Amino acid sequence: MAEASIWRNPVFVRVFSAATVSVFGSLVTRTALPFAAILVLGAGPLEIAAIRACEILGGLLVGLVAGAWVDRLRRRPVMIAADLGQAVVLGSVPVAALTGWLSIPHLIVVAFLTSILTTFHNVADVAYLPTVVEPDQLVPANSALTASGSVAEFSAFSIGGFLVQVFTAPIAIAVDAASFVASALLLGSIRRPEKDPPAVVERRPLLSEIRDGLRPIVASPILRSLAAASSAAHLMWGAFGSLYLVFAADELGLGPATIGLIAAAGGISSFVGALLAERASLRLGVGWAILVGLAGFTLGNALVPLAPAGAVAVAITLLVAQQLIADGAGTVYEVNVLGRVNSAIEFLTHLWLLVGTVVGGLIGEVLDLRAGLAFGVAGGVVAMAFIVLSPLRNLRTGALAPRRGPLLPPGDLPLTE
Predict the structure, then answer these.
(1) Higher-confidence residue: 91 or 338?
(2) Residue 416's pLDDT is what?
(3) Phi then psi for 254, rounded to 5 degrees?
(4) Distance CA 320, CA 332 (A)
């Protein structure tokens, strides 16, 4: 069986092990980096928004050209260089903390550089895997990597929170730096020679690709509605991405370990949502599956600003409910949208993710955290309105637009927190 034979492929086993280790470490840093800003440096919502915005911006900018650059190089050396680069960049955080030089600008630079390096690694990884396994093994190989990522997501947030609680955030980031060294060593241990990269096909100018991607959106009422709804939804996700940890830690007084365990509940919910996503579209139709998923995500997120300060049990209950409802429903939305949008919509919506991150941080800083979270929820309500008032809600099945090749690399900008 192909599913069993991939584990008898020593090269794939090393690639799988390297990916698992580095993904786990990256998710630990996703928890630890903002906590380093909040707990060590006393960062507020605007500083966290700046860190998160640079994390998005790095991948967004480099994602436009990374594919063309990687096409000219052997993939495995790119992956190794990206891993070692991230180890150095992340390793600077505990060193700076120990010497008293850690600062918000330092963390902003770290977020930006790690985002760029992650993008190059992801692009090279996607191109390298088909050279490692046989064509009939590609699906089980991708499934194994996806399952590994799901397990890492479930465990890394809780373990990351525990590491921050017990050993401080900079030490947790040092663990991530070590994970990238381990990943680079695993990839470096592969002895199978990699073929020379294929002849590069001349790419069309970027603006031409974006313009061609926008044409079917302008021509289709359904695609226009989906682009508008996805943009508003990403506005919500950006606001929550910049404010959630600050709100949970500063406003509610929750510790990193508690927040990590709450986030782990969301990982379980996301896994269940992925299992139910296709069934939801078959039973409800694609349009209603998108709407129901978005409604659940918005409703779940609306519980967060309602969490009371000073009533820890009630606050934890509401945050766990938010993770269980919003993450599962958000996955249903994400799965049903991702295969039906072209790369121009992806690029547009990630721009709105960046806008939501910055605006949410500004509102949280100038007004208060609950107002910023409420702004995010309002974005979800607007997204739902775009779907309800459009022909999209009646869509039963089918793709919506040809993809024409990605402007953004796969997996570099997660849709949900």
Answers:
(1) 91
(2) 36
(3) -85, 145
(4) 18
User: CA of 315: how far to CAs of 70, 248, 258, in Å?
Assistant: 46, 9, 11
| 222 CB-near residues (< 8 Å, 6+ apart) | 390, 391, 392, 395, 400
The length of the chain, given as a count of residues:
417
Residue 1: what pLDDT? 44
Distance of CA 131 to the CA centre of its chain: 26
* Pairwise CA distance, residues 174 & 187, whole Å: 20
Specify if 413 maps to a domain: no
Res. 398: pLDDT tops 70: no
What's the confidence (pLDDT) of residue 200?
53
First to last CA, the chain: 36
Domain count, the chain: 2
Residues 120, 126, 127, 129: is their CA dihedral positive or negative?
positive
| Sign of the C-alpha dihedral computed for residues 147, 151, 154 and 159 taken in this order | negative
pTM value surpassing 0.85:
no
**Rounded CA separation 42/263 (Å):** 22
Measured distance CA(409)–CA(414) in Å, rounded: 11
Structure tokens at 262: 């709450």
Residue 361 lies inside a defined structural domain of this protein:
yes
* The token pair that represents 163 in the structure block: 């590491």
Q: Do residues 26 and 157 both lie within one domain?
A: yes
Quickly state the pLDDT bin for 62 (edges 50, 70, 90): confident
Domain that holds residue 91: 2-188
3-state secondary structure of 158: helix
Average the pLDDT over 121-136 and give the result. 81
What's the CATH code of the domain at 11? 1.20.1250.20
Domain annotation covers residue 100: yes
The contacts of residue 201 (CB under 8 Å, 6+ apart) are none
DSSP secondary structure string for all residues of 265-282: HHHHHHHHHHHHHHHHHH
198 contacts 130 by C-beta, under 8 angstroms:
no
| Residue 21 tokens, joined | 């280790």
Whether the CA torsion 268, 293, 410, 8 is positive or negative: it is positive
Q: Of the spans 2-11, 213-222, 256-265, which averages the highest pLDDT?
A: 256-265
